[in-house]
């Protein structure tokens, strides 16, 4: 699975995967990684059908992929059939997208993928709006409540117990360690709105934070902009229900640090990830336990 913020440069007029100057870099990245599932964030103004068209025509992905969109900007593409989707309440119009995939051929089961993009930055409360940290907390609380409902058989998907779960996306976790703590352990903060805490994995344990590192580098950085006043950091995450899933590989792709031999072998160019987006692709490979 690959998670990718296809940046819109804050204008939201066009996602980067629709920009002709960036598409060759995206294509080389996807061909090098070979994902079976792609979770995009920041596809605001384009539909799932439009994403499917550009994926096939410009990004080198098969016409056999299925595509679906939830909330404002969350698009998921999959080689596996998409059986159902659901918008997970969070903070106002910041919802998360849940997708039920038929991954029987790969995992021997269905697969739940939750694609997230909580609010960015570290703003203070203003004009009746809570701080961005408080907004993000509501988004992650909502996802934990959704997973609790799935485990109790009260969720929107018809699925068996022990169905594998992957939660990924551009989390924008800055300023408050509680948000990743909640998503991993199920420690809901806003209990009046989202109900009691609940460990999200099927055996009552936390989810596994896969914490991928960059290829050929020891860092976990997934976002970097040279001209920004913000330092590079880890904004993009991938969690799995490791009670039923084994993480076989996990990595962040940053092409400028790859050896020349690797670039040549994988048909990549050194600036591909810089050209494609300010975020880096986060990749995990999972198998059933």
What does it look like?
With 289 residues, the protein is of the alpha+beta class. It has a single domain (2-288), classed as Deoxyribonuclease I, Chain A, CATH 3.60.10. The protein is 24% helix and 26% strand. The chain has helices at 23-33, 48-57, 104-107, 132-152, 178-185, 191-194, 260-265, 272-276; strands at 2-5, 37-41, 66-70, 74-78, 82-91, 94-103, 109-116, 165-170, 208-209, 236-240, 245-252, 282-288. Helix 4 packs parallel to helix 5. The radius of gyration is 18 Å and the shape is globular. The two termini are 17 Å apart.
The secondary structure category is alpha+beta
Order of helices and strands: EHEHEEEEHEHEHHEEEHHE
Mean pLDDT: 97
CATH architecture: 4-Layer Sandwich
Shape: globular
CATH topology heading: Deoxyribonuclease I, Chain A
The overall strand count is: 12
End-to-end Cα distance, whole Å, is: 17 Å
Radius of gyration: 18 Å
Helix content: 10-25%
Number of helices: 8
Strand order of the largest sheet: 3-4-2-1-12-11
**CATH homologous group name:** Endonuclease/exonuclease/phosphatase
Strand content: 25-35%
| Major beta sheet summary | 6 strands, mixed
**Poorly predicted residue ranges:** none
- Tell me the domain tally: 1
- Please give the CATH class: Alpha Beta
